[in-house]
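BACKBONE GEOMETRY TOKENS:
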Amino acid sequence: MTLSLDFLALPLLTASALLLLSLVAGLFSARLGFSFLLVFLVAGMLLGEDGPGGVVFEDFRLAFWVGNVALAVILLDGGLRTRYATFRTGLRPSLLLATAGVAVSAALTGLGAWLLLDLDWRLALLLGAIVGSTDAAAVFSLLQTSGVRLNERVASTLEIESGLNDPMAVFLTLALIGLAMAPDTGAARLGWAPLLALVQQFGWGLVLGGGLGWALADGLRLLARLTRPGSGVRALLLLSAGMAVFALTTWVGGSGFLAVYIFGLVVGNRARGSVAPALQAMDGYAWMAQAGMFLLLGLLVTPTEALRTLLPALGVAAVLMLVARPLAVWLCLLPFRFPPREVAFIAWVGLRGAVPIVLAVFPLMAGVDGAKTFFNVAFVVVLASLLLQGTTLPWAARRTGVALPDRDDPVAARQVYGDFEVPANTPMAALCRFYGWPPVEDEQLTVGEWFDRACEHAPVEGDQRRWGPAELSVRRVQGGTIERIGIRLEDTGDAGGGGDEGGRDATP
């Protein structure tokens, strides 16, 4: 009797070939402007029961487990790459978007679902909560592969929001599942329990993520001095520690997603020298997590079932993208005085990805009536988001003026910042006299100080202000301090020519 290894070889061959083909297709699709993740989702659908593969897969528990672990890996990688300076720039607006913004989006989307799908108001709000948060995998992936360099305020706001909003989405989903499963209790009978649960989610996530991150950062620095581990070993250390933090926080009732993101943030900044060699390997783990998660979720979807609710589901997606998200972003960013063009871009790039599909598994596992409808609608919303918002990200960035030129492209830099540039310590009064601009009230101000006062927020590269006939732009910022200012003139001939391609130094 011979032992056959077909049970190992055939599934492994199928999975590896599918992953390889998806990666190759993803590389070409990214050049055409399509989301890398969309290819994996479609590949999973083609392998499924409605596709050529014909594989029947309905293990929602396994998909839930894989989805959660994959999201934890992606958030860990994102946290490791986020610098404290970036975090400070976008923390306050991101925190409001990740809490109140998710709630507003969920409520408005729930209203749309109630009208379009004829659901009970509790179930409609539950659907709104499922699709209400942006997705870290989609945001991190699209910002990496789009080829667009965004200004720091916009990029940090989007990244941090996607890293922090999962606790709110999970809390709303679980609370509304409880309300849907026991409708007789009524919303008034819930008391303080939901609020306490939310505080517990955020509290444990912050405490364990920050505390354990601080401890591991010290341990990594000591280990690097004693043993000098290779980059692969360092990546495995970070990955295993991050998964332990995620699991421990989830076990004690906190948000594992928030904890693993904060953990990565603290470790990546406190032990930057030890973490940097491992980032390339961590990038590979994150991509593997994204690929596996989207392939499995695509396999879980039955397109023929999703088609039954296609039109109302597209209506829900339209309400989310065109009404709920823009209104939530506008309300949340109003106190921070973001320029309208940045508000418009952040509102449009509210990418949905794996998180809504994973959250849609919650009501299926809880046995909520009609829960498969939530899953199908969430899938359509994600597909619409990746197709519309994901593919138009570069166009939207250029259209709204939040895209910055490549640092190695002097021609593009000249188009954005103008023909001239000056050091930030140049007296503003001297510039006004030299160019014939209106005089400033305080002649002691440098142009950097004047720009800082004119801004209603911390200045970042790409910020613009007009003074008389000129448009002044922040060309370089270091440590939160403006170093160089670009000048665009309506008639550059009055100031002595157009300068060279990289921007002429026009200090008077």
Observations:
- The first strand starts at residue 149 and ends at 150.
- The beta strands are 149-150, 403-404, 420-423, 464-467, 470-478, 481-489, 504-505.
- The chain has two domains: 16-404, 410-505.
